[in-house]
Amino acid sequence: MELVIILRELWRRRVIVVLIALLALLAGFAVAFRLPSLESRKHEVGIATAGVLVDTPNSQVIGVAPKGSDTLGVRAGLIANLMTEGVVKASIAERAGIPPDDLDGVSDSSVGAATEKPAASSKAYVLRTRVAITPGGDRLPIIEIEAEAPDAARAAKLADAAVVGLGNYLDSKATSEQVSEAERLRVSGLGPPQASDVVRGPKTVFAFAVVIFVFAAGCAVMLGALALIRGWRVASAMEDQVEPDQPAAGDELARFEEQFGAAEADERAWREHAMTPPADDEHTRD
User: Fold this and answer.
1) Torsions phi, psi of 85, nearest 5?
2) Which residue in 178, 175, 191, 162 sits closest to 79, CA to CA?
3) Which has the closest alpha carbon to 188: 97, 81, 59, 46?
4) Main-chain dihedrals φ then ψ at residue 221, nearest 5 degrees
């Protein structure tokens, strides 16, 4: 029964319902497309992943306790940060064949750092780095690289440039500071980059969900507003209604006596006040 009442109310306000439906469709379009160009928010990008091992001169992979292995996790975090900014990032961009200003760097290796990710774009070049950690939260000397480019081929090229460019930068830095081969950190790629094309952007089902939510919320707000207005009017009418004053018994009896006479007034008084009429003398004598 309530459903029938609601549907009838919506039908009576069908013009407003149509406007709400148009607003819901606009919200759904805003989720799926960029307004006013109507360019789809979905776009295909290339993603490539690679790993870099930060090692000591005496490899920790085969050594039991090589010198300096206890600080490799911290050094890996520092290097991961350097890869996404300054000279190292510019060197990686040049090796990948892209302008340095077109490459965005994001590092997730800083503990507790809230790094804002660049806005998603089908033409963006993004280099993300993070340090692998154990389930217990300890850092490993492994830098995980994720490269984003317009397609998988360019993403793989950027990831490979990040590995090679990092090694070249560390070698040149060690040479300029005259660090011997036996004391240099060594970085090496953990296999070739793995690249693929992926679709980014909101799913179509999200747009449909927004349309349904906005339409239902709009209709609920309209029905609630109508019920509130109707209740307000009823309450106002009840407050404005004035109850008539009840006349006193004597005044009513006097008005009745003037209109119908004394006999009818006495009879009405007996009936209303439960009075017993006086006995007739003749009947009493009988």
Assistant:
1) -155, 160
2) 162
3) 59
4) -65, -40
Give the ranges where 139-280 is alpha helix by DSSP (H): 152-176, 204-240, 249-260, 262-273
User: For residues 164 and 187, what is the distance between their CA atoms, to the nearest angstrom?
Assistant: 9
* Token code pair at residue 91: 């060197």
The rounded average pLDDT for each run of 10 residues, N- to C-terminus, in the chain (286 residues) is 82 92 92 82 87 74 50 80 86 88 80 46 78 82 90 91 87 80 77 86 88 94 90 84 53 55 54 52 48
Query: pTM to 2 decimals?
Result: 0.59
Q: Could you give the angle at the alpha carbon of 200 between the alpha carbons of 196 and 203, nearest 5°?
A: 130
Element (H, E) at 32: helix 14-32
The upper half-sphere exposure of residue 100, i.e. CA atoms within 13 Å in the direction of its Cβ, equals 11
- Contacts of 124 by beta carbon, 8 Å cutoff, 6+ apart: 45, 102, 104, 118, 148
Q: Is the peptide bond before 36 cis (omega within 30 degrees of 0)?
A: yes
- What is the C-alpha to C-alpha distance for residues 18 and 72, in angstroms, rounded to an integer? 64
Element (H, E) at 43: strand 43-55
Q: Is there a contact between 167 and 184 (Cβ–Cβ < 8 Å)? A: no
User: Residue 169, Cβ neighbours under 10 Å: how many?
Assistant: 18
Nearest-angstrom CA–CA distance, 113 and 110: 5
